[in-house]
Amino acid sequence: MHRASLPLGLVEANGPEARTVLITGATDGLGRGVADNLARRGWTVLVHGRDPQRISDTVDELRAHGAAVRSYRADLSSLEEVRRLAGEVAQNEPALDALVNNAGIGTEVPGGGERQVSEDGHELRFAVNYLSGYLLTRFLLPLLERSAPARIVNVSSAGQMPIDFDDVMLERNYSGIQAYCQSKLAQILFTVTLAEELDGTGVTATCLHPATYMPTKIVPSPASTLEEGVEATARLIADPDLDGVSGRYFNGQRETDPDPQANDPDARRRLEELSRELTVT
Predict the structure, then answer these.
(1) Pair type for strands 98-101 and 248-251
(2) Three-class SS string for the chain?
(3) Are 155 and 211 a contacting pair, CB within 8 Å?
(4) Is 180 an annotated catalytic residue?
(5) Which candidate, 48, 137, 153, 39, places its Cα nearest to that of 98?
(6) CA distances from 135 to 76, 169, 196 (A)
(7) Whole-number Å distance between alpha carbons of 95 and 46
(8) Cα–Cα distance between 54 and 149 in angstroms, integer?
(9) Domain segments of the chain: what residues?
């Protein structure tokens, strides 16, 4: 079902060339803002969230723009729920033109400075911020490839710290900042791996730091507007000028270099092997 059609973003609402996007964490903050932005352009928006009431509120708001909206609920701290989410999307959706891995946990919440683990026993921020998106993407790649041209956008951060492969789950030396920053760098390493793997398929992968300290629930002291982050993220999803751009990291709307570990083939290989090991059924 390859569709070499209108450029991304230049579509009529609900028409034969309407585009479909799945946004994780779409019920508040950046995810909700991006969902609103794309709904207004006529995209079909697949809203993911964890809380049923927030999902319902978001769907009602987006439908008020005349957009086609469908919803999916899953707790991304559970790999089994991620698998269920992926299976439902793959079964229900005829096409997927963009996947936005946006859901995440910040440096301070939940749990403050206390180390927490996911349902599967993995360090919580690594599990939610990185592993859930890794697994969801892997499951949905066949649908994305059939829908090509398609895009994968990973919402990362300028806050990056190298992954310590001898203590990835931070069992010996934990801090919320380290947990958050290594999970965000892991997203970037995965983006580069995907770009190389998907070269020639029509599916691209990019990642970004949307804006600095936007006013979302995981940011205690905002410094940027939500609109800045929404515009930067929507650009990677929908801007025709970025057709074919893959494996790049953006700070806002400017391409820049991530932490040097992202350019280390051995680190990317080790992360891929670890990710497959942790997510295998």
Answers:
(1) unpaired
(2) CCCCCCCCCCCCCCCCCCCEEEECCCCCHHHHHHHHHHHHCCCEEEEEECCHHHHHHHHHHHHCCCCCEEEEECCCCCHHHHHHHHHHHHHHCCCCCEEEECCCCCCCCCCCCCCCECCCCCEHHHHHHHHHHHHHHHHHHHHHHHCCCEEEEEECCCCCCCCCCCCCCCCCCCCHHHHHHHHHHHHHHHHHHHHHHCCCCCEEEEEEECCCCCCCCCCCCCCCCHHHHHHHHHHHHHCHHHCCCCCEEEECCEEECCCHHHHCHHHHHHHHHHHHHHHCC
(3) no
(4) yes
(5) 153
(6) 10, 17, 18
(7) 11
(8) 31
(9) 20-279
Q: What pTM does this model have? A: 0.91
Question: What span, in angstroms and rounded, lies between the C-alpha atoms of 202 and 60?
Answer: 33
CATH number of 20-279: 3.40.50.720
Q: How confident is the model at residue 111 (pLDDT cuts 50, 70, 90)?
A: low
Q: How far apart are CA 44 and CA 48, in angstroms?
A: 13
User: CA-to-CA distance for 185 and 161, rounded, in angstroms?
Assistant: 6
Q: Which of 174, 180, 213, 249 is catalytic?
A: 180
pLDDT tens, 50-82? 999 999 999 999 999 899 999 999 999 999 999
Strand partners, 100: 23, 153
Residues 90, 140: contact at Cβ < 8 Å?
Answer: yes
Please state, in angstroms and rounded to a whole number, the distance separating the CA atoms of residues 191 and 8. Answer: 20
